[in-house]
Amino acid sequence: MGSTASERLHRRQVWAARGALASAAAAALLPLAGGGVRGVLLLVVGLAGLIVTVAALWWVLSRRGVVRAGAALLAAVAPIGVVVLFVWESMVWVIAVSGLLWCAAVWSGRYALRSTGLRQGRTKEYRTPSPKRPFLLLNPRSGGGKVEKFALREKAEELGARVVLLDPERHQDVAALAREAVADGADLLGVAGGDGTQALVAAVAAEHDLPFLVISAGTRNHFALDLGLDRDDPATCLDALTDGVELRVDLCFAGDHPFVNNASFGVYGTVVQSPGYRDDKVGTALDLLPDLLTRRRGARLTAHADGTTFADPQAVLVSNNPYRVDDPLGFGRRQRLNSGRMGVLAVKVDSAVEAAELLLDPHGFGAVTAREVIIDADEAELEVGLDGEAATLATPVRCRIARRALRVRVPRERPGVPDLPPRLDWRRLRKLAATVSRTAVPHRSGHTYRPPRDENRPAA
Q1: pLDDT band for position 330 (50/70/90)?
Q2: 406-426 per-position pLDDT tens digit
Q3: Which of 62, 404, 425, 440 is the S-S candidate for 293 at Cβ 3.0 to 4.6 Å?
Q4: Under 8 Å CB-to-CB from 419, ≥6 apart: which residues?
Q5: How far apart are CA 227 and CA 225, in angstroms?
Q6: What distance in Å separates the CA atoms of residue 216 and residue 384, rounded to the nearest whole number?
Q7: Which residues share a beta bridge with 318?
Q8: Cβ neighbours around 23 below 10 Å, total
């Protein structure tokens, strides 16, 4: 019976791969069939229009004055001109159908690869006793006032937590407050605030091997998102105090400074230092980018990542576990937070031509994973963005990862991390489509040894 089910799975896998290849071929050939040579020429014009648009956007970011204004106009006119041309030549239907075929190819290909059983495993959950003396820091200004909106202080105190409301009118050392709480006997540390504040307290929790509670009351809360927490209702994070499980996740450091998401060097690291950045992000960036992208301002960087060297990039992003950058559906997400490896993205674009080349080949971004990253520069200090917060660090900056050093307590019932689609690998699809035996499906035994129940073992 199990063999029959496996054979059915194999047949679906093979036919999905064949359907993906057939749809991709039809999408590529349709312009030729629908419009002959003219259709192919129109596709070339469309691609050229896209390249011109990308080049114009580069000039918008790297130039000022009349050149920037002209480039902005070109970036708007180029795609409109392409659309008008396709309408004039009555080729819109060809592009629409071709687009649908590409969508079908991508969907079928993902289904074929998803059914191979090679999907990323879920993070283990550990059952541990509920905390008896939890300590929470709440930032009332975070996320536009979510602490008050969702009555987080009142709900936390009802659940037995000791709560400290941060004073928005003065700077407070949240790490020092967390250490004082540990000295007073706290057995859990938690924060309602942005990712930068989360990282500071998370480092104290990891240092003392205490569970850490993330309350998604910040503006974006990327860390909470990748933990599978509910960002729309931060009050649900408090359920972890009474009905929670623990995840073991990685914690990263740039020098001695912790981060849970990423450390940005170069362009963004400098932009975030500007006093006007918080009030006008777009205006501040447009004002600073021309000098930063053309290297008239800012440090000249060199990044060393486990034997790979990136020379003179404008920007380097070091992340706590790698982000997906190869797929629009999973872009900027982390499937894992416990791989023990950092993601490294290096960007070096010195002209509109190189910007257009990145469009044709997104792999032109320097992207690797590493256990240690050294950022050196031609200046004694580097401006860095740590989880969106401005910092200045002495060079060289050593980034390291502490694997599974952080015990994050999360609600047992939560939205969870979405099952991101597998990478679309056309070579694997061709092999799957050509197979005739059942060996293409990796065999996984349905029998797993389960040890006797223990409160500290992974939850079922």
Answers
A1: low
A2: 999 999 988 876 666 677 778
A3: 62
A4: 119
A5: 5
A6: 24
A7: 263, 344
A8: 20
